Amino acid sequence: MTAHALELKHIRKSWGAVQVIHGIDLQIEEGEFVVFVGPSGCGKSTLLRLIAGLDDPSSGDILLQDRRVNSVPASERGLSMVFQSYALYPHMTVRQNLSFGLENLRMAKEEIDRRVDDAATLLQIEMLLARRPGQLSGGQRQRVAIGRAIVREPQIFLFDEPLSNLDAELRLQMRVEIANLHAQLGNTMIYVTHDQVEAMTMANRIVVLRAGKIEQVGKPLELYNRPCNKFVAGFLGAPQMNFLSGNLAPDGTLTMDCGLKMPVRLGETLSAAEKCTLGLRPETIGVSLEGAGDMTVKVQNFEQLGAVTYIYTVFANGETLTVQLAQQIPLRRGQDIGVTFDPTRFHIFAGEGERALLLHGRADA
Ligand SMILES: Nc1ncnc2c1ncn2[C@@H]1O[C@H](COP(=O)(O)OP(=O)(O)OP(=O)(O)O)[C@@H](O)[C@H]1O
Ligand SMILES: [Mg+2]
Predict the structure, then answer these.
(1) Residue 194, ligand 1, Cβ within 6 A
(2) Tens-digit pLDDT profile for residues 303-326
(3) Using CA atoms, how far apart are residues 338 and 1, in angstroms rounded to an integer?
(4) Which of 21, 105, 122, 189 has the fewest Cβ atoms within 10 Å of its own Cβ atom?
(5) Which tens digits make up the pLDDT trace of 190-210?
(6) 269 CB less than 6 Å from ligand 1?
(7) Binning pLDDT at 50, 70 and 90, where does residue 1 land?
(8) Are 144 and 97 in contact (CB under 8 A)?
(9) Does any ligand 1 atom lie closer than 6 A to the CB of residue 79?
(10) 226 vs 213: CA distance, rounded Å
(11) Is the CB of residue 46 below 6 angstroms from any atom belonging to ligand 1?
(12) How far apart (Å, rounded) are the C-alpha atoms in residues 175 and 212?
């Protein structure tokens, strides 16, 4: 069996009396692009710093290629980290910023030059090598920061929200560039973000974190199609999944507070009727302007983006429903429209959303 690139075993971390990482177990394979996502304060940066060796876990083991590295200093772990604030040295040129760390390692000058030139070519910043950081755009500076990680030729790259200082257009461009970089270098990469689009588009596997615990790990579409609970379901996908409350009978009849009544094919046995939360992705809901549909809702607002239309509606009981259509339709505020539902694309969560219930015959099976 080949070694895992990284393995975390029962990692816990406390700051004083406050525990922020609550027992994390995770295996990452050679060459994987793994994205950690989760809301602010859930422990993403803390976990990355523990892996990098910048902080020590309170308990648990960190293994690189099956070797325990808890007591190995950061500089000897073979990892490179790229931070959100890419502190470049302002008085040094780009070339000096890239070579500085290697000079400290007393590497031969020819080897340093080779690595810097290779990284500059890969990142397309060759023409910027003589400039200082003050003479670069935000995206170019971020490329230099990534270059500084590349020249170390690490086993694993660690990225902590490297794009969050960039404007939307540049983020998108750098997102594609980092994905290309991964394809070219083939290194293991661990990437922290709270942007679910970055997670969905860049990751081989996503790790969803909440309050210092792993909620779910899986391929992007696995998590999108089979979220294990309401938290994961709500975190991935924009606009967010709609959540409606109601009851589920043992025979599979859903009776929702908004008035919707529908049968679903339950994949597990309920002993009695239970409170449940119905999850509806906005793109799975149909609109019928003429017929009544399954339910009638009132249009509160809408956004026509050309390729897609977002319709923000409300049920008579006050619960809201966002619909995403891949077409243009005539709409006006305050109008009543019919909406249709596809039970093969339902997500049903027990209670307030703690656990996804098994359903048979799902469309995305
Ligand atoms: N040095 C520290 N001393 C005390 N508490 C800390 C320290 N570093 C982090 N924390 C706490 O640990 C928790 C996790 O912080 P962390 O920085 O890992 O979150 P994050 O998921 O990276 O959030 P963000 O998305 O905002 O960057 C937070 O509650 C934070 O206040
Ligand atoms: Mg952070």
Answers:
(1) yes
(2) 999 999 999 999 999 999 999 999
(3) 56
(4) 105
(5) 999 988 899 999 999 999 999
(6) no
(7) low
(8) yes
(9) no
(10) 19
(11) yes
(12) 26
Q: How do 156-160 and 79-82 pair as beta strands?
A: parallel
Identify the structural domains of the chain with CATH numbers, from first to last. Answer: 6-228 (3.40.50.300), 239-356 (2.40.50.140)
Inter-CA distances, 111 with 84, 100, 125, 152, 338, Å: 28, 13, 19, 11, 68
Which ligand is in closest contact with the Cα of 209?
A: 1
307 Cα–ligand 1 center, Å: 39
Q: Within a 13 Å sphere around the CA of 166, how many CA atoms are in the beta-carbon half?
A: 22
Q: Assign 86 a pLDDT band (cuts: 50, 70, 90).
A: confident
**With a 6 A CB cut-off, is 154 part of the ligand 1 pocket?**
no
How much is the pLDDT for 323?
Answer: 98
Q: Name which residue sits closest to atom 18 of ligand 1, judged by CA.
A: 43
Q: Does pLDDT of 165 surpass 80?
A: no
What is the token pair recorded at 110? 């020819």
Token output for 218: 């899986």
